[in-house]
Amino acid sequence: MTAALTSKPAFLSPPVKTRRDARLAVANIGVAIGAFGIAAFMALMQALSRANLDLPWRSAGMYYLSVTAHGVLMALVFTTFFIMGLGVAFANASLERNVSYPKLAWSGFWIAVLGTAAAAWAILTGKATVLYTFYPPLQAHPAFYLGLTLVVVGSWIWSLVLLATWYAWRRDHAGRTTPLPMYGMLATIIVWLIATIGVAAEMLFQLIPWSLGLKETVDPLLSRLLFWYFGHPLVYFWLLPAYTIWYTVAVKIAGGKLFSDQLARVVFATFIVLSAPVGMHHQFMDPGVASGWKLLHTFLTFGILFPSFLTAFTVTASFEVAARAKGARGLFDWIFKLPWGDPTVSSVLLAMLLFAVGGFGGAINASFVTDSVVHNTAWIQGHFHLTVGSAVALTFMGTAYWLIPRLTGQELELGLLAKVQPYLWFLGMVLFSIANHVTGLMGMPRRIYDATYQGSAVAEKWQALTLTSAVGGLFLFMSAAFFLLVMLGTVLAGKRTETRRVEFSDTLLPESNRSSVFDRLGWWTVIAIILVLIAYAYPVYSQLQMQTFGSPGYKPY
Ligand code: HAS
Ligand code: CU1
After folding, report:
1. Domain map of the chain by residue range?
2. Which residue, 82, 103, 394, 429, could crosslink 351 as a Cys pair with Cβ 3.0–4.6 Å?
3. Best of 72, 387, 392, 437 to mutate for ligand 1, by most ligand atoms within 8 A of CB?
């Protein structure tokens, strides 16, 4: 399952115009990296604010503006555009064909860009200090909600384009199994399409009419239910492309073979089925949802740990295969035989190490009793910087070092910075996240501007750790700057390269080329929808029946 992005092999019909798809992929990844740059700068402002340093521009309004900008641009914009670019590149290379409907694909991209610009304008002009979860009754300018809705519409168009590409491929390859890189992207798309129904309903029926003044009040409980129906599978929309890269790219670059193609497919199919019916683990403390439903979501959340355990096993085993092929013999020496100097491989290995801790924290969050200790504390930002901020973001940066030269035909520049960057990220994240986990356990709330609580004795005990997390933030900022410099250097000054093949891992055992139960994606989707109905139909129905009073909007800054 290999393909070249430049060559047009004679056996392919119609010919693969890889430059065309490469341009679309680069445009998406370019927007992603631009958003990442602004978001990284905002993060620095937050970390310094939190550390209570006496800075001239420091104010509560500026703090909430920067937290919102950082969260929206990193978690919603950087990820979505990167994944859209990756999807185009992976579909082209693994299916060895052009993506279908290129004009539609570009229009989806421009709609998402327009939406991003509108939301960014609202945030950066201080009209949307609602944080990335935009819980009402905090209210933003309509441009914020309309903008994010357009980003989702753009991503739906992208999803349809890739699905159409896959259907066309299947028509030409009846009975063949879908190549794993595309299989991972398809699982991502299905999870995304199921998830975004929730946020679309929240935007269209609640937030947009309310922010436009067509409705005076909003029901915050219903809106949280809809948001978290979307918000948890959203994290797997981020994670599944990273897993796809671990399985199909990192293992290959490390010189290994995928330990088991079938296990990888079990993982992706399980994510399709279990990603959505677990969102209430974000709402353990919410009133208005009966505890039996919260318990059901807890059980299902423990189910969704399983595919990540499988991934830990399969990807580690595949790396071990790589190291043993290079002559490792002992129990642990294979770890040191891995190419830790390659920025793509080291990004993935370090992302895995951080995710082992972040995933463990996820299991703690998943139970009512332990979550009640950490909910709404700094622990949570510790958790999600190890997951989306490391497992996902570090993997994406490592991927850019490998993919951008192949898409643009320009060699990676400033290679030394690229080599150091993942380690700086790792160091920064260790300082930042451990400090936040501990202060969370000590009771420090998340999302607060003044961590001193005007000199309270309890808050005094957090100070050394908030400073540690700010030092972590500085390392992270440095690492982000290195990444941006490498990307700019590559695009502006990279020498031309002929290495444009996008190649994926082979499997250890010879792969069966025949379609299997995993290719029945329609069935997996049906099972997912049934579980969603079981987990959500009654809770949503009872919220709609409940007498609610609604809330007017608040704009504290
Ligand atoms: Fe989470 C809150 C539960 C995974 C993101 N999560 C959040 C929030 C975000 C987030 C953004 O149950 C904050 C939301 C907000 O703003 O309010 N999370 C989980 C669980 C998992 C999990 C059970 N989260 C993620 C991922 C995210 C993410 C992935 C982003 C990408 N999370 C929660 C809960 C809350 C929550 C509650 C609400 C808390 C509250 O009170 O508000 C699981 O999916 C985790 C499974 C992962 C593992 C780890 C597998 C390890 C691997 C690597 C192994 C490495 C090895 C080393 C072996 C079981 C795959 C190899 C090394 C070599 C050298 C070879
Ligand atoms: Cu979650």
Report:
1. 7-172, 177-253+255-332+516-546, 339-505
2. 394
3. 387
